[in-house]
Design a protein that fits this description.
There is one protein chain. The chain is an alpha/beta fold. The strands form five sheets. The chain has an eight-stranded parallel beta barrel, surrounded by six helices. The radius of gyration is 28 Å and the shape is globular. The protein starts with a helix and ends with a helix.
């Protein structure tokens, strides 16, 4: 739609949705051209129809959406088998913790759109061009709560296979499929040539139809115009190949037009769709990391549970989040693949605390989580705001548990841990436990929860009181695997309660359970004996390819200690690299007793930030973790400023200044805002001019501030010309200024075309460039 509107005179910076009222005939004409070319679906002119844009044009969200649907309905009138998709884009704000928009506010924003769309008569909801998996989950939840329309969802990926916010293809598929979309895929950012590996990954993991809608290649300069480098014929050829691989729906994004669709229809009309295969894997995820159960032994870290841990109980009651985060970090370092999170204390607001801890952990760690509570409200609250697909711990065969827990699992796209107990308690025989597991699985299936999303805990009893039950548990694990074909979980250490030499019993029970098919022990990953048992099992069952992990673990082993103790006084570099703001402040106070402020900055903080930057550039951490680390460093900087001597204060306050702006005509500023956050936390003095900034305003800011560095952002091809005008004005008036450019549409090629000194593909590259100037 955007490409066609630009050809019909859409002005730079003009909001396309306004044309639903000022020029509805033009919108209808474009729809008609696409329908005549053979399109089966037309997308409403409502891409940015959220409350923020609605306010700018003096219309309500409902008015914009209803108008866009009515125009589309008029276009398809009299045509058979043509459908209207309600087109919904990201809202333009960044969700917390990276930004300041809450999850629930995001849900409300999208609820307004989908409610109006269904009421107006759209056939399905089409979420597209999302880069934040968390925002997309909020949009899907809004659709599920306010509409019965089918949902299709696509995200925009970069050539490295991740979205701007760090979501991977696998995590997108795992999350969206569990949330119940009818189709998923990729759109925008890249051309069909660059999508090959992404499409292959989509097809490998998705059990629902895959939809792709690439750009017409990459932007290039032809004369004075910015165009795309793939012709309609080339585009159709690439898409035909993808259809033969198994892609079930295709379309064209930026740079395409009805001619592209016409050739697509011609080339694809004779291709018989490839059957969609069901992918029978059990998986959970965060946005950037996945756990596939059965592929390897998955260690579930058990330490975030207040039962028997007085220090953790005190931290929960005091709201000492950093203490909890340190425990989470330590378990990851000790080898946990996912973390069980339980905040169950009788005298706290458990729903609030569990949700808060889940959000805080996800802000600094990429490990998937198992949400653990006997409080239904706490489970739902945490499952709702979880970014990705978690496990819910747990459900049992009691009617109340099944009735309360399974709908939460279905609605929020979770996996579920089923306990083999019912109203009569825990059965004595393995066969009875298997029967309970089967009841849980069958009940879940009736709600549309597939068995691949169900894990079973056959429950370990204490050998001191029920000695024969250990063998029954092991037998139950084997039978669940053989008969029910689902993955298994055990809290192994229960077996030794009340007996001497508990570590011996624990590791022996663990080894026996692993041989019976245990997929995921719930354990303390800092228990050396248990961890070594898992490492040996992985090697002896060839799960550890060529024994590489085993060799790395033991070839230069430190002296054995049965428990890895948590360091209660973390050094400043550790606090910064792990995003622990409070710990960074405390570590800075400790360092001030021994070092001068400038020494701390130059020899501690800056090297730590450099390491964070390297980890980000190497895809070891992603945007949320980068921001948390930068904020931790900022807290240290602020403390140091408060104690600096006058001379030292002068040295530190003379920070590099940089002017940031999204260029005239471009109203997209998420990327620029991220750059601002990172720059400020890397100790730059940022002058943020906002979005849609005229060249003259940028020039005035440079002259007034005396800065020698400018950062310009553009998302749309139509505003690259504005960027060039801004740079030309700066060159004529302030020739010494250094200019860094970035944004989704930019590339080194276009950066050179507009006359910039440097192209930055992301915030960290922007920091690196600014530091050199």
């Amino acid at each position: 739609m955007g490409t066609m509107l630009q050809k019909r005179g859409l002005k730079v910076g003009e909001i396309p949705e306004l044309l639903n009222f000022t020029a509805p005939d033009i919108i209808e004409e474009i729809h008609t051209e696409y329908l005549d070319a053979g399109a089966d679906v037309i997308l409403t002119n409502s891409f940015g129809a959220n409350r923020f844009k609605a306010k700018k044009i003096g219309r309500s969200v409902e008015e914009i959406v209803v108008a866009s649907v009515n125009i589309a309905k008029k276009a398809i009138a009299g045509r058979k088998d043509k459908f209207i998709a309600l087109d919904v884009a990201p809202c333009g704000k960044v969700l917390a913790p990276a930004g300041d928009l809450s999850f629930e506010d995001a849900v409300d924003i999208f609820a307004e759109i989908v409610t109006a769309g269904e009421k107006a008569g759209a056939d399905y909801i089409h979420f597209e061009t999302f880069t934040d998996l968390y925002e997309l989950k909020a949009a899907i939840i809004a659709a599920k709560e306010n509409s019965k329309l089918p949902i299709v969802a696509t995200m925009s990926f970069e050539e490295n296979g991740n979205t701007f916010f760090g979501a991977t293809v696998k995590s997108m598929v795992i999350t969206l499929e569990a949330l119940g979309v009818v189709a998923l895929g990729v759109n925008c950012s890249l051309g069909p040539k660059q999508l090959s590996s992404i499409v292959n990954e989509l097809l490998e993991f998705s059990s629902v139809p895959v939809f792709i809608k690439p750009n017409a290649g990459l932007p290039i300069i032809r004369g004075e115009e910015i165009q795309y480098d793939i012709t309609a014929e080339e585009f159709a050829s690439y898409m035909k190949d993808y259809a033969l691989l198994g892609v079930r729906a295709v379309g064209g994004c930026c740079g395409t037009n009805p001619e592209y669709i016409k050739l697509l229809k011609k080339d694809l009309s004779k291709i018989k769709p490839k059957p969609i295969s069901f992918k029978n894997f059990t998986a959970i995820c965060s946005p950037s990391k996945q756990v596939f159960f059965g592929k390897d032994i998955a260690l579930i870290g058990e330490r975030l549970n207040p039962t028997g841990r007085k220090t953790l109980q005190a931290a929960i009651r005091e709201g000492n989040i950093d203490f909890i985060l340190k425990d989470a970090i330590k378990q990851q370092e000790q080898g946990a693949n996912l973390l069980d999170v339980n905040m169950g204390l009788p005298d706290i607001d458990e729903p609030h605390m569990l949700s808060k801890v889940v959000k805080e952990i996800q802000a600094i760690l990429d490990l998937p989580l198992q949400i653990d509570s006997s409080n239904y409200d706490a489970l739902e609250s945490a499952a709702r705001i979880y970014n990705g697909k978690p496990i819910i711990n747990s459900v049992n065969a009691k009617k109340e548990s099944l009735d309360k827990i399974l709908p939460i699992v279905k609605k929020y796209g979770c996996a579920i841990l089923g306990l083999t107990l019912d109203d009569s308690g825990i059965p004595e025989t393995a066969e009875e436990r298997v029967a309970i597991a089967e009841k849980i699985i069958n009940t879940a299936k009736k709600l549309g929860i597939p068995s691949k999303d169900i894990l079973i805990d056959c429950l370990v009893m204490t050998a001191s009181a029920q000695q024969k039950q250990a063998s029954e548990t092991l037998k139950a694990v084997r039978l669940v695997k053989e008969k029910l074909k689902v993955k298994t979980v055990l809290g192994v250490s229960n077996v030794s309660f009340g007996l001497p030499n508990r570590p011996l019993l624990n590791r022996t029970m663990l080894a026996m359970a692993l041989t019976q098919g245990l997929d995921a022990p719930i354990m303390n990953p800092g228990d050396i004996d248990m961890s070594e048992t898992v490492a040996a099992f992985r090697t002896l069952t060839a799960k550890d390819n060529n024994s590489e992990q085993y060799i790395n673990k033991f070839s230069e082993q430190a002296p054995k200690n049965n428990k890895i103790e948590q360091n209660e006084s973390l050094p400043l570099p550790y606090a910064i690299t792990h995003g622990l703001k409070k710990e960074a402040e405390e570590a800075t106070k400790s360092l001030l007793e021994k070092k001068k402020p400038l020494d701390i900055i130059e020899n501690v903080i800056i090297p730590a930030l450099n390491l964070v930057g390297e980890n980000y550039e190497n895809n070891n951490i992603f945007l949320p973790q980068l921001i948390k680390s930068a904020e931790a460093a900022k807290s240290s900087f602020e403390l140091l400023r408060s104690v600096l001597s006058k001379n030292d204060s002068l040295a530190i306050t003379q920070r590099k200044k940089i002017v940031l702006a999204t260029v005239h005509g471009d109203i997209h500023d998420i990327g620029k805002n991220i750059v601002k956050i990172i720059m400020e936390n890397y100790n730059f003095d940022v002058i943020d001019l906002g979005k849609d900034v005229p060249p003259e305003t940028v020039l005035q800011a440079v002259k007034t501030s005396g800065t020698s560095i400018v950062g310009l952002s553009a998302l749309m091809t139509t505003t690259v010309a504005s960027m060039k005008k801004t740079i030309e004005l700066l060159r004529s008036e302030c020739p010494a200024v250094k200019i860094i450019v970035g944004g989704a549409v930019l590339s080194p090629y276009l950066a050179n075309h507009v006359g910039a000194d440097c192209y930055a593909k992301d915030a960290m590259e922007g920091v690196r460039a600014a530091e050199k100037f």
